[in-house]
């Protein structure tokens, strides 16, 4: 599956609620503006609740032709027919996820250093989520990772690398400029003053960097 990681939305209901926004309306606004990939991240839900939520979210993503990934939950991803999953270092094993979801599923792995990146690539990961690159309120236990190490990780693997953690429109260009294939974001999209403007801003920045790489 050919995935565009450039403007990668990770969902979070609390961010929408803090802004007084309807969750589905906010996600749809981001999809309309050009988000390229969505990950459903619902840590507090049971698998059954995630499946119910995921079916609604997948129907919305399908309407705009955007793939949906599920954070951590392989069972949910399989049940709703998601494009794949994103797994952390302590989550369900990559091999088990591949066994359950099949060779065509997209499986991303979180990596925080060169060794984790190498192991994930060797294990068959399709992409890496690397960070946290900047302080983030949505994952307070995340440890910042330097841009220098981020660049080294990108150069050390042949699979796409996505920057994560505290990335907004101001940081986006810097991260893409390091060689990243995209950025995974929550607050800078769902918590933006204007969701559509935020997405379009980052898409425009990506195009500038993409032209430089040609």
In a few lines, what is going on in this structure?
The protein is an alpha/beta fold and 214 residues long.
Task: Walk me through the structure.
This protein is an alpha/beta fold and 214 residues long. It has a single domain (7-213), classed as TIM Barrel, CATH 3.20.20.70. It has helices at residues 13-18, 23-33, 47-63, 74-80, 94-101, 114-123, 147-156, 169-177, 187-190, 195-213, and strands spanning 7-10, 37-40, 68-71, 84-87, 106-111, 127-130, 161-164, 182-185. It has an eight-stranded parallel beta barrel with strand order 1-2-3-4-5-6-7-8, surrounded by seven helices. The protein is globular and about 40 Å long. The two termini are 22 Å apart.
- Provide the CATH topology: TIM Barrel
Give the overall shape: globular
Distance between the termini: 22 Å
Order of helices and strands: EHHEHEHEHEHEHEHEHH
> What Rg, in angstroms, do the CA atoms define?
16 Å
**CATH architectural type:** Alpha-Beta Barrel
- Order of neighbouring strands in the sheet with most strands: 1-2-3-4-5-6-7-8
Q: How does the helix and strand content classify structurally?
A: alpha/beta
Low-confidence stretches: none
Q: What is the percent of helical residues?
A: 40-55%
What characteristics describe this protein?
10 helices; alpha/beta; about 210 residues; single chain; TIM Barrel; 8-stranded parallel beta barrel
Task: Describe the secondary structure blueprint for this structure.
Blueprint: E1 7-10, H1 13-18, H2 23-33, E2 37-40, H3 47-63, E3 68-71, H4 74-80, E4 84-87, H5 94-101, E5 106-111, H6 114-123, E6 127-130, H7 147-156, E7 161-164, H8 169-177, E8 182-185, H9 187-190, H10 195-213
Helix pairs in contact: 2-10, 3-4, 8-10
